[in-house]
Amino acid sequence: MPFQVLTAAALPAYLATLPPMQERFTDFEALDVAEVGDGNVNFVFLVTQRGAPERTVCVKQAVPYLRCVGESWPLTRHRMDVEVRALREFGALCPQHVPAVYAADSEMSLVVMQRLCNHRILRLGLIDGLVYPRMSDHISTYLARTLFFTSDLYLAPDAKKAAVAGASNPELCRITEDLVFTHPYDDSPTNAYPPGLPPRAIERLQRNPPLRAAVGEMKYAFMTATEARLHGDLHTGSVMANAEETFVIDPEFSFYGPMGFDVGAFIANLFLAYVAQEHRQRDAGRDPAPYREWLLQSAVETWEGFERKFLALWREHEADGTGFIGRDLDGESAEVFRAAFMRHVFADTLGFAACKMMRRIVGLAKVADIAGITDVAARTLAEVRALRIAEHLILSRHAFGSIGAVVAAVERLGAT
Ligand code: SR1
Ligand code: MG
């Protein structure tokens, strides 16, 4: 079918044309459809057969523009091909944390996938102060498996190079290059300065040569490193969770890049939640300390879990002899190399986390954790603290010896 923007009304007839849907639905006249997308980029529909709640799917369609801006920001629909490939690849590596793809239609720029009925967008749960006991274990597993198995540490050299070429995503990478690594430090017209943010806080980003040089280094790494296939936008709005399960969704920004970009994105969003929750918990009549402590502990467990599981995969598959280390180094030198490699990913994680935090304060796209705080003084305090934390993380990224030292700094800067 040639491309057309689907409406809720048109979706049942369209789904009836897809062979895999014949097994999932028995009555296409009885489908309830709701458009529920609240992301920045695409449209999302939930489809359920009336009287048969188990017969349900999620449909996501890319339109030829950026949803949150409209037709004045054109964007090719190629991003849906990227997303489908990434969902399939990550799903094969980590099926317990990636929604299953039921059908995909490149012409229509659309994917039909598993509907996560009993899960909620993680950011919304965190805003409400919910604890997710398995979150950091699951996210660290997802990160370790997707980053290790798509890297040169596992893949044979020619397979890895073919994978890099096949995952090229220049258009969405350009959005990140602009919105995360360029505009916030440039007084760009795309920036959206929060109403209460003091001018000196903005000057500390935009007239600060060491900080801008550090952001330049992170941007260069983002543009040139092809370490692993990344999700590319792993904030807490790209995760759906409940107390037992965690799923990573929305990999339309996927490409081959530096591993620390994905790890840093997730940790950055925990730190943004941390600065927001001082006010949010008090506003709900609760002592903020326990929940904020859990957020920081989750950042520690995410990094430590990722490092432990990644290294375990590396050692386990070294014996296979296909990846870089398997062919090149003896046991002792391999361990020295591994330690240096993890220090590099850790410093990148902190640098990228910082850029992600700064862009969410002064850039175009905000996070609801902070932007949704209606008390302007409380919101501004959270924003100033986020910027202070980010500045320290990026400038000291090579000096931190452990994630414990990082969260101690976050705690200190998040209290002043
Ligand atoms: C203009 S799109 C804004 C942001 O939404 C996505 O989630 C990415 O983070 C992108 O930068
Ligand atoms: Mg998204």
Automatic annotation (TrEMBL):
Keyword ATP-binding: yes
Domain of life: Bacteria
Domain named Aminoglycoside phosphotransferase: residues: 76-293
GO molecular function: ATP binding; S-methyl-5-thioribose kinase activity
Top-level class of the enzyme under EC nomenclature: transferase
GO biological-process terms attached to the record: methionine biosynthetic process
NCBIfam families linked to this entry: MTRK
Family according to the record: Belongs to the methylthioribose kinase family.
Complex formation: Homodimer.
Protein name per UniProt: S-methyl-5-thioribose kinase
Protein source organism: Gemmatirosa kalamazoonensis
